[in-house]
Each structure stands twice: as structure tokens, then as C-alpha cells.
Amino acid sequence: MPKRALIEHRPWLLASIVAALAFYFVQDSVLAEIWRTAIKGLAVGCLAFYAIRRANGTNATLIAAVMMFGALGDMGIEFDFRLGGGLFFVGHLIATWLYLRNPREHHAVSQTALAAALLVGTPLVSWFLSGDAMVTLYAAALGLMAATAWMSRFPRYRVGIGAVLFVVSDWLIFSNLGTFDLGVLPDYLIWPCYFGGQFLIATGVVQTLRHELAEEDDQLP
Q1: Which of 48, 84, 147, 195 stands the most exposed, by the fewest C-beta atoms within 10 Å?
Q2: Distance between CA atoms of 199 and 12, rounded to whole angstroms?
Q3: End-to-end CA distance of the chain
Q4: Are 91 and 63 in contact (CB under 8 A)?
Q5: Is it the case that residue 221 has pLDDT exceeding 70?
């Protein structure tokens, strides 16, 4: 029954998962580059359509835009690293706007400290791994996105952890740019960490918005 419900009511989520699995197994294959790139973009692109179909309002539009820029970045980076990074940079700024619009009312000291660590540590670690100033500038936006996600009202065990997974996936990418050799780990972990992070972010935000909409409907006379 859960599988049937997924197919009938959340087809974009199912399509996203299928595309993500397909890309993981074909990314090093002899499949034509244009097809690999299209499959890659489809994985997160479907999350954008999921957000639009399952939620309404400005917050839903913003999370859909975040996922769409993620999908464009996924495809762009296959042709030019700077193009992909620029598209992701814009996505991080939109995500930061979304999270700042939705602050959490109360913050534990430990959670605030973790957000500060993400804000400062993300660009610092990125510089250590890559030694590249432009990568570090990009990572500043990445760290801001992760920190504000952690401090937003959206569930930390989905959206917050999803943002952290995004950071980890980028750190794995940056390790390939510098002298810090992680062996084959980036090859196996970049895509699962990245897609898993985006999936948690999209579903965490959308399900929060849907839950709030249902509560509002219940309160109507």
C-alpha cells in the first residue's frame, strides 16, 4: 500500500528517486554525456515539481526554485565547473531567504553553536580542501544556507541534516581539487550525500507546509 500511495499521490518523488538511482549507476558508463546529464538533472528537477504540486504559497515557490537551481547546477557542472557553481550559489541564496523567512522561535545554545560552526566552518574547511578563493566564496554561501536551515522552523532531522549532507557532498568534491586525497570515497559518496540532502530538504519543507495548511483547514468554521 505505501508503494501504491507513492506512485499515485507522489509520482514526482518516485521519479526523482528512480532518476537518482539511475544516475548513480550510469555516471561512469559509456552512455552519451547528454543523456547522463539529463538523468542527473531530472533527479532534483523532479523535487521542484513535487514542491509545486504538493504545497502552495511563497514558501513552496521558494523551495521549488531552490530545487530547480540545484537541478540546473547539476547539469551545468557537467559542462563547466564555474557555471554549475554559480547556479548552486544562486540556489543557496534563495534557500537562505526561505529559511530566514521561517525562523525558529526558540534556540538552544548548543543548536546556535552548531549553526555558527556551519557558518564559519564550511568556508574554512573548503579553503583547506581546495586552496581556491572562488571555491571559498561559494562555500560562504553554502555555509550560510546550512546555518539558516539549522535555525529555521523546519525539522532539523530532515531539513537541517539535509543541509549538512549537502555541505559534506561539496567538501568531497573540493577534496578532489586540492592535495587532500580521500581516495575513492568521493566517487562513491558525493552523489548519495548530495541527493539525499536535497531529498530531505525538499520533503521536510513541503511536508511542514502541508501539515500547517491542514491545521488551518481544520480550524475553519
Answers
A1: 84
A2: 12
A3: 33
A4: no
A5: no
The overall average pLDDT reported for the chain is 90
Single out the residue of 165, 189, 203 nearest to residue 50, CA to CA.
203
The number of folded domains in the chain is 1
Q: Determine the Cα–Cα distance for residues 49 and 45; give it in Å rounded to an integer.
A: 7
Helices (H), 152-184: 161-175
Do 203 and 6 contact (CB within 8 A), yes or no?
no
Residue type at 33? E
Name which residue leads in pLDDT, 96 or 37: 96
| DSSP calls for 12-53 | HHHHHHHHHHHHHHHTTSSS-HHHHHHHHHHHHHHHHHHHHH
pLDDT in tens, 176-212: 887 777 888 888 999 999 999 999 999 999 999 998 8
What residues make up the domain containing 205?
A: 2-219
Quick one: 66 exposed, middle or buried, by C-beta within 10 A (0-12, 13-18, 19+)?
A: buried
**pLDDT tens digits, 14-68:** 999 999 999 988 776 656 678 888 999 999 999 999 999 988 899 999 999 999 9
